[in-house]
Every structure is written in structure tokens, then in C-alpha cells.
Amino acid sequence: MRARCHISWYMDITSLEERIAHLLRVTDDLSDTVAHQAKEIDRLTARVEMLMMREAEREAEGSGGIVLGDERPPHY
Which among 29, 37, 44, 73 is placed 20 to 30 Å from 66, CA to CA? Predict the structure, then answer.
């Protein structure tokens, strides 16, 4: 009976080690994903800021008009 208890305990430890290894791998994958997303957010934030500055300059110049598909330019 003592041998059976020892085997059961060993299997429990092995099972826990496998679960911990899986959790560590998932945690590492999630960490990589979050780091990638943070870089992408930073890049997109910089682009939005650039576009906002460009639009503010356009509005300040007074040439913020939008030309739609088939409209003729004003000099026609």
C-alpha cells in the first residue's frame, strides 16, 4: 500500500510540473503579444498625431476643402 501512495504522489508532482510548464509558456506568449501590441499602439499613436498636426496646418492655411469624385475644380 505504501508503494501505491508513493506512485500517486509522484504522478501528482509530475502533473503539477506539466501544468506549471504550460502556464509559463502561455505567460511568455502573452507577454510577447502585449509587447508587440504596445509597439503597434505607439506607432499608430505617432501616426495619428502626425495626421492631426497636418490637418491643423491645412485648416490654418484655409485650404481644408475636400474634393469629391466628380466635382469640377473652382477655376472652371
Answer: 44
